[in-house]
What does this fold into?
Amino acid sequence: MLGKFITIEGGEGAGKSTMLELVADWLKQAGHQVVRTREPGGTELAESLRDILLDKDNVGLSSLTELLLMFAARAQHLAELIRPSLAGGKTVLCDRFTDATWAYQGGGRQLPREEIAALETLVHGDLQPDLTLLLDLPVEQGMRRASNRGESDRFERESLVFFTRVREAYLERALAAPERFAVIDASKEVEEVWSQIERVLQTRVGS
Ligand SMILES: Nc1ncnc2c1ncn2[C@@H]1O[C@H](COP(=O)(O)OP(=O)(O)OP(=O)(O)O)[C@@H](O)[C@H]1O
Ligand SMILES: [Mg+2]
It folds into this structure.
């Protein structure tokens, strides 16, 4: 039987990495064999593409190049890790996936929907996450959380306007696919965010 594919999405500092740990522990307790991974990245080659994408010195990277590199990294990640893991019955838990492309390259960079849709179909038209946890919070609050860490990457240097479009695009995606998404109020304390997620896992995943 094919394993479950679960993704965690949200803007900068939404708490994705924090919650991913807790979700992984919960899934293991429930008897899942969990593969934790992230995008862009997840394989050696895709992590190299991630370095290019996040490098703040790559100021000349065009939006189209960015989009293509995101999907190139994703194609490799799917081929090398995601598809084989799911085929082996494992639960794949991924920090960001194609919804992030819709949010950042679509919402943020305002690239045409048709271009993103065409690449999505090409790269994984037959495969979508079973569950997507969208950590939603006001942009300023996320930026404050993220800024407590070291130097900012190429995306973190974007403007409030950019991240507002990212947030809106994420919420639009969630509205369009309510059966796949769970929108979590990530503005709350860690414990409270987690209890919302735990309820979702209990009703939508099980063991
Ligand atoms: N609910 C919360 N309330 C307050 N602080 C939080 C909460 N969740 C996470 N944090 C803190 O905010 C910061 C960002 O959290 P985290 O790294 O989990 O976010 P992220 O979504 O993975 O960010 P990025 O998009 O940059 O990877 C961390 O310092 C983390 O400890
Ligand atoms: Mg993170």
